[in-house]
Design goal:
Layout lengths: L1 H6 L5 E6 L2 E9 L10 E8 L4 H14 L5 H14 L1 E2 L2 E2 L16 H7 L2 H10 L3 E5 L3 H10 L14 E2 L6 H7 L5 E5 L13 E4 L4 E4 L11 H15 L5 H22 L7 H7 L3 H13 L4
Parallel strand pairs: 6-8, 6-9, 7-8
Antiparallel strand pairs: 1-2, 2-3, 4-5, 9-10
Helix pairs in contact: 2-3, 5-8, 8-9
C-alpha cells in the first residue's frame, strides 16, 4: 500500500514486482465518497505474468465501473474477463501476440543528451550488471528501465531480472541484493547512495550514467566499444534517424559478436584459447572471453 500511495500519487498507472508476483495498480479520482477526505481510489491486480498493456486496459474498465462506488461492478469485470476473456470492447486475444519487452521506447531527446553513454548501458547489460534507473517521474523511470531490456532480447529469461519500481525499504533491498544482475527503476533518491548494490546508475534527472567503483574494471572500454561509440555518436547527429534505428545498431552488434564467438568454436566447443588465437587486441580478447562465459559459450 505504501508503494501505491507514493508512486501511485505521481502517476495513475504503475506496476512493479514483489518476489514472483507482478502487481499492477490504477489510481483514479472519485466523487460522492462516504468519507469526504477520500478523493482517490486504487485498484490493483496481481499476476504471475508480465503484461502491462493488457492489465492497464483491464484496470481502466474496472475504474470506469467503480464510478458509482459499487465494488461488485469491479468484480463483474474481473469475472467476465477471467471466464470469457472479454468485457465490452476488451478482448484478451488483442494482447496475445505482443512481445512484452518491446513496448518501451527511448525518448529521442534523452538519447541525444546521453549519446555515447548508451554504449556503457549496452555494455553493462551484455555483461549482466546490476543497473538502477533513477528519476523523479514514475512513467519515465518505468518506460526507460523497461526499454533497456531491448538490449538483451537474445536472452529468454530477461524478464526475470527486471524490477520497474523498487524503493530503499528493506524488503526491496533484500529481494535484489542476492541477484547477480538486474535492471531496476526507482524514484527513491536514497538508493543513489547505495553503490555497493548497483554497478551502474542511470540518473534521468542529470542525464548521466554513473559507474560504481566496484564495476570500473569490468566496464573499461576497448576497440569494440570505441567503434560502436563512433557509430552511435554519428547517428545521433542525424536528427532524422529514429531511436529504434539506433537500438537496432546495438542489437546488430550483439548478434555479430555472438556469431563471431560461435564461429571460433571447434566441434561445438569454445575455449578462451580459441578466442586468443583469433583476436589480437588484448582488451578486446579479455572482454569477448567474459561475454562468452556469460552467454554459456565456454
Amino acid at each position: 500500500m505504501k508503494r501505491v500511495s507514493v508512486e501511485g500519487a505521481k502517476d495513475n498507472y504503475i506496476y512493479f514486482k514483489v518476489k514472483s508476483d507482478w502487481i499492477y495498480c490504477f489510481t483514479f479520482k472519485i466523487s460522492n465518497s462516504v468519507k469526504s477526505s477520500v478523493t482517490f481510489a486504487s485498484i490493483c491486480l496481481l499476476s504471475k505474468s508480465f503484461h502491462p498493456e493488457k492489465f492497464n486496459a483491464q484496470l481502466k474498465l474496472m475504474a470506469e465501473q467503480y464510478k458509482n462506488l459499487d465494488p461488485t461492478k469491479v468484480l463483474e469485470v474481473y469475472l467476465a474477463i477471467l471466464t470469457t476473456g472479454t468485457f465490452q470492447s476488451y478482448k484478451d486475444s488483442d494482447y496475445e501476440n505482443s512481445d512484452q519487452l518491446d513496448f518501451g521506447s527511448f525518448n529521442n531527446d534523452l538519447i541525444n543528451e546521453i549519446q555515447g553513454d548508451f554504449v556503457i548501458l549496452w555494455n553493462s547489460i551484455i555483461l549482466k550488471k546490476r543497473i538502477l534507473v533513477f528519476g523523479n517521474e514514475v512513467n519515465e523511470v518505468i518506460d526507460f528501465s523497461r526499454s533497456l531490456n531491448i538490449f538483451s532480447k537474445h536472452r529468454k529469461d530477461a524478464i526475470n531480472y527486471f524490477r520497474p519500481l523498487i524503493r530503499s525499504d528493506q524488503e526491496s533491498i533484500d529481494e535484489i541484493k542476492p541477484m547477480n544482475h538486474f535492471i531496476a527503476g526507482s524514484t527513491d533518491s536514497a538508493l543513489l547512495a547505495k553503490q555497493d548494490i548497483f554497478d551502474i546508475i542511470v540518473n534521468l534527472e542529470s542525464k548521466k550514467v554513473i559507474v560504481s567503483p566496484g564495476a570500473i574494471d569490468d566496464m573499461r572500454m576497448n576497440l569494440i566499444h570505441r567503434e560502436l561509440h563512433e557509430v552511435i555518436t554519428n547517428s545521433c547527429a542525424n536528427n532524422d534517424i529514429e531511436n529504434l534505428k539506433i537500438i537496432e545498431l546495438f542489437n546488430n552488434k550483439t548478434s555479430q559478436l555472438l556469431g563471431q564467438l560461435n564461429s571460433f568454436a571447434q566441434d561445438g566447443k569454445l575455449t578462451d584459447t580459441m578466442i586468443s588465437q583469433r583476436i589480437s587486441n588484448e582488451s578486446a580478447k579479455i572482454w569477448l572471453t567474459k561475454l562468452a562465459i556469460i552467454e554459456n559459450l565456454i
